[in-house]
Amino acid sequence: METASTIHTDFDLCYRALLSRDARFDGRFFTAVTTTGIYCRPICPATTPLEQHVRFYACAAAAEAAGFRACRRCHPEASPGSPDWNVRADLVARALHLIADGVVNTEGVRGLAQRLSVSERHIHRELVAEVGVGPLALARSRRAQTARLLLDQTSLSLTTIAFSAGFNSIRQFNESMQAAFGCAPSELRQRTCPANNGDGKLTLRLHYRPPLALDPLLAYLERRALPGIEEVSAGCYRRTVAFQRSRGIIEIEPIAGKNALLVHLQLNDLSELGLIVQRCRQLFDLDADPAAIADILGADPLLASLVEAQPGLRIPGAINGFELALRAILGQQVSIAGARTLCARMVTRCGEKISEPQGSLTHFFPTPEQILAADLQGLGLTQARIQAIQALARAVVTEGLGLERDAERERTNAQLLSLPGIGPWTASYIAMRALGDPNALPATDLGLRHAFEAHGLKTDARSILSYAEKWRPWRAYATHYLWNTL
């Protein structure tokens, strides 16, 4: 299987994708044209350049480092992210997730290296070898891309955009935008942007590779919507979000006829805007490659008709990994409705109320520290369940348990399994949704057993694991296809 670190080195493959404007490769490599000094997405509608004038790069930052400027027609900054790093989940993949979350902006390369438990030199060397540039260049490109999106899609002032994108000064903002796009930020904003309708909301477009099976994704989220925290209504997902500095409400809804979703953000602080946008992309699995998934799963007679009936099925991710893990514990051996009730009681007791409730959205999900400080008696939880929840919160606060996309999956799995009340099913479910592991497989799941039984297959965990070898590296997607039949 081609990966993000190698696909751009296959010139013939990339050029064929360029000729056909193949959307499957959007975001997986970028095309630079030596005669114009511009780099584009593979789907750019511009006239295809001659082979001798083309260079291919693994990421936008590498093209920029080579002296190319971003195309103003196809907007490389709006392309979906590469799905390859979720498959790999190695050191480079974890570093890229952290950079996308803004860690280099706030903690520098030293902070990035410390989070990964390696030296600054080592992570620089590994990134250069895989994607062509080091962490500083990647972070600079990410800031410029975020700023360009805000320039293009909002009416925010240039100063607000600069600091929301993660720049430390206006001078740094101007220099980076000049290098990435060949002009000053004010020149990029050549048209009047729509106002925010007076409601304080910021609206952005999140692009994805088609197709996207949105109805089953929203149905999955709606069945599990946590009262006070989230709701799904009329095809729109809404929820409260709380990060270190930014908190507020997000809304996500489709755009008719476009391969994009609209995200409306109402935040008290925009300094973590890039992080929140990344979490929204992860929640709706917008960086997935549905064609690659269909190629593997569609070849299995057990799944072929399901893949054909629901092309582009996505795995719901998580805005907050701790929240997802806690809800997974509460969902053990109870119905979905029962788990929602238990969790809603916990939110009411432990979570912070939002200052101005909006409809059914009234609280922020409690932090691990709030869970540890709270009395969980009288909520209808067994003592064993209370101990499991407190152990999870303690592991996050004091033992460095990582529950986001940048976590080291094997270590996280081992830590989870060492906690009371967490077994293989729960650990796999957390890996699937919080860690974004596309190969996670809850082999002991009752729903999987029912699906296998309905097709006359053996239903013990060993047999399911053996059969699922043909699904690699998309076993989590296969699981969701089978869950949807129940």
From TrEMBL:
Keywords: Activator, DNA damage, DNA repair, DNA-binding, Metal-binding, Methyltransferase, Transcription, Transcription regulation, Transferase, Zinc. InterPro entries: Ada-like_dom_sf, Ada_DNA_repair_Zn-bd, AlkA_N, AlkA_N_sf, Alkylbase_DNA_Glycosylase/TA, DNA_glycosylase, HhH-GPD_domain, HhH_base_excis_C. GO terms for biological process: base-excision repair, AP site formation; DNA alkylation repair; methylation. The keyword Hydrolase does not apply. Pfam families: Ada_Zn_binding, AlkA_N, HhH-GPD, HTH_18. Its cofactor is Zn(2+). Its EC number is 3.2.2.21. Residues 93-191 form the HTH araC/xylS-type domain. GO terms for molecular function: alkylated DNA binding; DNA-3-methyladenine glycosylase activity; DNA-7-methylguanine glycosylase activity; DNA-binding transcription factor activity; methyltransferase activity; sequence-specific DNA binding; zinc ion binding. It comes from the Bacteria. It catalyses: Hydrolysis of alkylated DNA, releasing 3-methyladenine, 3-methylguanine, 7-methylguanine and 7-methyladenine. Transmembrane segments: none annotated. This is DNA-3-methyladenine glycosylase II. It comes from Dictyobacter arantiisoli.
